[in-house]
Amino acid sequence: MKSIKKNEIHIIKIDDIGTEGEGIGKIDGYTLFVKDALIGDEIEVKVIKTKKSYGYGRLMRIIKPSPYRVTPRCEKARICGGCQLQHLEYSEQLKYKENKVRNLLERVGKIKDFEMLPIIGMEEPYYYRNKAQFPVGMSKEGQIVTGFYAGRTHSIIDTTHCYIQAPVNEILLKVVKAWMQWNHIKTYDEVKHDGLVRHILTRVGKRTGEIMVCLVINGEELPAADDLIRRLKAVEGVVSISYNVNREKNNVILGNKIVNLYGPGYITDYIGEVKFQISALSFYQVNPEQTEVLYGKVLEFAEVDKDKVVWDLYCGIGTISLFLAKKAKFVYGVEIVPQAIADAKVNAEINGIENAAFFVGKAEEVLPEMYQKEKVYADVIVVDPPRKGCDEELLACMVEMRPEKIVYVSCNPGTLARDLRYLEENGFKVEQVQCVDMFGQGVHVETAVLLSRKAQ
Ligand code: SAH
């Protein structure tokens, strides 16, 4: 292998794409990862970092563009850390995601003979997000800037128009900026840890049109609050205005305390026929339309009816549980965050759902305990873990409980593959795999997998 040195310029052909959407090419067998380069591109690249068998390069010039390359709609797409794939045709983004999942299941999961259903893409892969957290800062020229962080940094790209957020955000940002200017409200300076406004959080109910605005501040009180309320109330749809106190010197966006200024403290929205109350601190899926598609698939896979008992592990605010409860005999949800369980109970109540119960705790502790002490059983187990996947103790307990089916919902195909391998080695068979795109222009993908118990 040729030795490759930093700052060298090379011409390479990109022939693969990595898990973060970066292009991958080779110089005489030496692998180079190049952000913003696409499969099929011929590029001039500058080597910026080298390791023994691979390195990183910066895209300097496209010599011959990939046939799948498109001009990003957003002129800030390359510098902003929000979207990684806007320069790739949407149908190719979908293919990339589906292949990523298939490859991991085959290579890491060692899974054979499963049916890969065609990925379900979004009808309109723009303006789909219902939640935004815009950092607020000051430009060198002394202007208030709001927008997004540049990839892997904390410098703010000033932009009010984001192509994956609800369009109304543009108006909301302008209103808040104008209020800050008029009232001489200071932006937060994260280096000096002074100033007031850190982030502007917005949530938009896609179905209801209800809007929440919450300012995250480095202080206990919000000056000129009446003026803010007056200005924001003039925007159609705004039903909730609040602020969140975050006086910590860290990267965490929200503090624990919310002070309500106007409205009930939450907005409502729907996933399918289930209604949700969403407060500033509660977790809610960012793309409710595709969530409905994904959970519809979960329901289809689970094939529940009025005889079936279901355990929904990592249930969050009960989104999947309530969806299933409409068809099942009884649904038990388990979730580690107490506030999410409180929300789940409220959500069950406002939907008149009585055949669901929720427990706070770690899934890997609650389920084994309930199984040993109370002899609970499950016809179907649904899991929807965070990126790190399921704990092995939990998988072992699921195996022991011998449900007819397991439906595994995953946001990380790497840990999904690992966990499916365990389940396949312990009496279950992967039958069908369905990817659903919830994050157009980004690299993430959601997958629902149906497993059935092998006959013994
Ligand atoms: N199914 C839910 C949420 C899935 S996100 C929905 O669709 O809304 C994953 C959830 O797992 C988060 O709510 C997180 O708080 C929770 N979680 C993380 N670790 C956990 C654990 N060990 N046991 C139970 N829940 C956990």
Characterize the structure shown:
The structure is a single chain. This protein has three domains: 9-64, Nucleic acid-binding proteins (OB fold (Dihydrolipoamide Acetyltransferase, E2P)); 94-124 and 287-453, Rossmann fold (3-Layer(aba) Sandwich), CATH 3.40.50; 131-271, OB fold (Dihydrolipoamide Acetyltransferase, E2P), CATH 2.40.50. It is 25% helix and 32% strand. It is built from nine helices and 22 strands. The site of S-adenosyl-L-homocysteine has 19 residues, from helix 5, strand 17 and helix 7.
Name the poorly predicted regions. none
Task: Count the beta strands.
Answer: 22
User: Looking at this structure, what is the CATH superfamily of the largest domain?
Assistant: Vaccinia Virus protein VP39
CATH architecture of the largest domain: 3-Layer(aba) Sandwich
Q: Classify the helix fraction into a percent range.
A: 10-25%
The largest sheet is: 8 strands, mixed
CATH fold field value of the largest domain: Rossmann fold
Attached small molecules = S-adenosyl-L-homocysteine
- The averaged pLDDT comes out at 95
Sheet/helix structural class? alpha/beta
| Whole-number count of domains | 3
Shape: globular
**Helical region count?**
9
Strand content bin: 25-35%
Terminal residue distance? 51 Å
Alpha-carbon Rg, integer: 24 Å
